[in-house]
Design brief:
- With 113 residues, the protein is mainly alpha-helical.
- It has helices at 12-29, 38-55, 65-69, 82-89, 100-112; strands spanning 2-3, 6-7, 32-34, 97-99.
- It has a two-stranded antiparallel sheet with strand order 1-2.
- Helix 1 (12-29) packs across helix 2 (38-55).
- Bound molecules: iron/sulfur cluster.
- Iron/sulfur cluster binds next to loops.
Amino acid sequence: MAASGIFVLVEKGEALGRVRRFVESYVRKGAYGLYPEVAVVENVIEGLAENLAVHGKMYCPCADVEASKGKGAEMVCPCTPHHADIARQGYCDCALFAARDFVAAEALVRKAR
Ligand code: SF4
């Protein structure tokens, strides 16, 4: 089907709903929290939904999609490197998921401001 001249595999609204449900479930059941900036998180969610709609999978929005397509599931969210990235810097490269201690530390910093 076509939307605004772009061929889409999943309707954008449906894609956004699927991404939001995935993110909510991953955070509820998993080891990580959300990166503590709502606007950043929302931007990543939009990017994931865009990739799901146009490319059929939740390819990482902070990586080159065409390159990711050649890597199987490695760069489909939650991507393979996100555990190592979170362990190293406190959050995944897109700044969607973050270590719970990183989230807690950021909250303390903000409270002290
Ligand atoms: S960097 Fe984060 S948002 Fe991007 S695919 Fe990996 S886990 Fe998902």
